């Protein structure tokens, strides 16, 4: 059996110095049929290790649930890393940040009364123990000492940026060891004295996260990790994008120089990201430093391997740098092929008021409930109440955005990002509906795990609105009777594809294409909503940008009768959508 250890100056693989040249690849952001391809391309760039987080809420979307099948099959992912002859580093949180919904922590746990987040508190620790009990056996049996690829496990994530509870870190270590993890344990923190001091423990091995000035940052790390090998736990070779901002890129020349400095110094590295992938469905997180800013659907990250798994100029340049320090295979991945281009007419339509009753169960309340109170942990929720002709306006706190309808007619939008809290009403009695979108749980900082939905009280000038019907919408997996109903609408009776799409509504169109080929969906003229391809919720689109195209992984597509469904919340110029030849992640800062 092989061994992996932390030596006086180096990591030791079978007692020999081993420079970890790792790349981050999150299995939860990549279609499972493409895991093998992405891992293979990591080895071709010269990487010897794959690093992945484990997103707790991806496996446990609701209390009591724990799924490790299909897209969630961590064991299979690690086995593919082993089959490629590579090592693995696993970072099972419990908190991961990663621009992921609530930083990976389950919303159902965060809303439990009395829970203490990321600290020694019994409700939280009991839940973590249960999570570890499910996930760590998958990792334990794949450790290097048992013939598997796993050489190290990380405890927490950049804890020094959040807290200073050493007892919490020690309890995590105790629980991890109790589950049979015997490989070295790492921590990572931003390359800053205060954070490095708080985020680790003397008995663990500290690593630092940074994206530039490698030599200086390694010197900072050395002050806190006086012995053993130095490692950049996350080398930020790109950055994430947020709605309404520019597309972030990191210059190849700078990345390459910083990587060269790192490797030349003998340090180990984990590229964050080697391949970013996609925030499918409702999985994206958000940031909030005074303004709530949700993360876009693409997690391309300007990484060496693009979102669609294609080598970039950065890939080739990094491969050259790595080749100075380690063996790099001769094989080079092929460049990106042109994706099939076609226009799809979405000529089946269902108005929101017809669709909503098919999309979830409704409960009645004598107060305004949060989404947590009705067990809706992500996505969209419909809130309805009665207003009178005397009501001028209603003041609401919305997390995070709401489209307002009065008897089915759009009457406005409220957005938390714009600090919008008051909706003017058109002096008409009727049913006020708010289609409330959870745009993603904050993944970094003190607002981690906030309550979502509408927050009480909702007031008009004269009263508190306290009678509500609330529907937890099932959009992640559209109910079959809903899709049947949408398919059964006839183009003649419902809409003409040349006419605009008005108000919230669902559209459906079918198309034939090249089976298994990656596609890029471009929704120019559409405003904001969700897209499904053959029943799979790709995620959110929004004219706020910067992203212009959504990546559609090839394995989702067959040759005939593919189904495209769009939920448009506002309106579109025409009911057509286009698949284009190449991705467009939007304008950059320059
Ligand atoms: C930190 C976190 C990561 C990620 C990056 C930014 O390093 O540890 O999870 O959020 O920032 O992409």
Automatic annotation (TrEMBL):
Keywords per UniProt: Glycosidase, Hydrolase
Catalysis: reaction(s): Hydrolysis of terminal non-reducing beta-D-galactose residues in beta-D-galactosides
Similarity comment: Belongs to the glycosyl hydrolase 35 family.
The Beta-galactosidase galactose-binding domain, residue ranges: 506-562
Protein name from the UniProt record: Beta-galactosidase
Keyword Hydrolase set for record: yes
Domain Beta-galactosidase 1-like first all-beta stretches: 372-473
Broadest EC class assigned to this enzyme: hydrolase
Gene3D superfamilies: Galactose-binding domain-like (2.60.120.260), Glycosidases (3.20.20.80)
Source taxon at top rank: Bacteria
Sequence ranges assigned to domain Glycoside hydrolase 35 catalytic in this UniProt record: 11-324
Entry-linked InterPro entries: B-gal_1-like, BetaGal1-like_ABD1, BetaGal_gal-bd, Galactose-bd-like_sf, GH, Gly_Hdrlase_35_cat, Glyco_hydro_35_CS, Glycoside_Hdrlase_35
Pfam assignment, any one: BetaGal_ABD_1
EC code: 3.2.1.23
């Amino acid at each position: 059996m092989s061994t992996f250890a932390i030596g006086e100056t180096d990591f030791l693989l079978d007692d020999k110095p081993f420079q970890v040249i790792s790349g981050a690849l999150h299995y939860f952001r990549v279609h499972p049929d493409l895991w093998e391809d992405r891992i293979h391309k990591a080895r071709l760039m010269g990487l010897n290790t794959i690093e992945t987080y484990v997103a707790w809420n991806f496996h446990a979307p609701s209390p009591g649930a724990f799924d490790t099948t299909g897209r969630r099959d961590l064991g299979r992912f690690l086995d593919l890393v082993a089959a490629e002859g590579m090592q693995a580093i696993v970072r099972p949180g419990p908190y991961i940040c990663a621009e992921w919904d609530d930083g990976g922590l389950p919303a159902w746990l965060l809303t439990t009364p009395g829970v203490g987040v990321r600290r020694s508190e019994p409700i939280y620790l009991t839940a973590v123990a249960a999570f570890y009990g499910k996930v760590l056996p998958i990792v334990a049996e794949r450790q290097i000492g048992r013939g598997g690829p796993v050489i190290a496990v990380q405890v927490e994530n950049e804890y020094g940026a959040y807290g200073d509870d050493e007892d919490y870190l020690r309890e995590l270590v105790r629980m991890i060891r109790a589950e049979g993890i015997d490989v070295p344990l790492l921590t990572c923190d931003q390359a800053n004295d205060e954070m490095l001091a708080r985020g680790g423990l003397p008995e663990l091995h500290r690593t630092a996260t940074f994206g530039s000035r490698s030599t200086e940052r390694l010197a900072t790390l050395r002050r806190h990790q006086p012995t053993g090998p130095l490692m950049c736990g996350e080398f930020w070779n790109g950055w994430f994008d947020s709605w309404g901002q520019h597309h972030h890129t990191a210059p190849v020349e700078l990345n390459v120089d910083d990587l060269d400095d790192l490797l030349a110094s003998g340090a180990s590295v984990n590229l964050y990201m080697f391949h970013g992938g996609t925030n499918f469905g409702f999985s994206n997180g958000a940031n909030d430093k005074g303004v709530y800013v949700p993360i876009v659907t693409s997690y391309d990250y300007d990484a060496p391997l693009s979102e669609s798994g294609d080598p970039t100029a950065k890939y080739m340049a990094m491969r050259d740098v790595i080749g100075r320090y380690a063996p790099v295979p001769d094989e080079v991945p092929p460049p990106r092929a042109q994706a099939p281009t076609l226009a799809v007419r979405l000529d089946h339509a269902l108005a929101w008021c017809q669709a909503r009753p098919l999309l979830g169960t409704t409960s009645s309340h004598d107060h305004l409930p949060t989404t947590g109170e009705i067990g809706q942990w992500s996505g969209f929720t419909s809130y309805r109440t009665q207003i009178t002709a005397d009501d001028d306006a209603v003041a609401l706190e919305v997390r995070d955005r709401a489209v307002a309808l009065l008897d089915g007619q759009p009457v406005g939008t409220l957005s938390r990002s714009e600090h919008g809290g008051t909706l003017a009403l058109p002096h008409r009695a009727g049913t006020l509906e708010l289609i409330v979108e959870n745009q993603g749980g904050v993944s970094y900082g003190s607002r981690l795990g906030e309550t979502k939905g509408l927050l009480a009280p909702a007031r008009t000038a004269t009263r508190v609105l306290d009678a509500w019907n609330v529907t937890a919408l099932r959009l992640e997996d559209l109910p079959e009777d809903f899709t049947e109903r949408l398919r059964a609408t006839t183009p003649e009776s419902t809409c003409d594809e040349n006419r605009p799409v008005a108000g919230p509504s669902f559209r459906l169109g079918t198309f034939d294409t090249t089976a298994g080929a990656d596609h890029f969906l471009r929704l120019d003229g559409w405003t904001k909503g969700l897209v499904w391809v053959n029943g799979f919720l790709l995620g959110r689109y929004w004219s706020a940008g910067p992203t212009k195209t959504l990546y559609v992984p090839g394995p989702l597509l067959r040759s005939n009768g593919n189904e495209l469904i769009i939920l448009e919340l506002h309106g579109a110029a025409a009911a057509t959508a286009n698949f284009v030849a190449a991705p467009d992640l939007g304008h950059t800062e320059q």
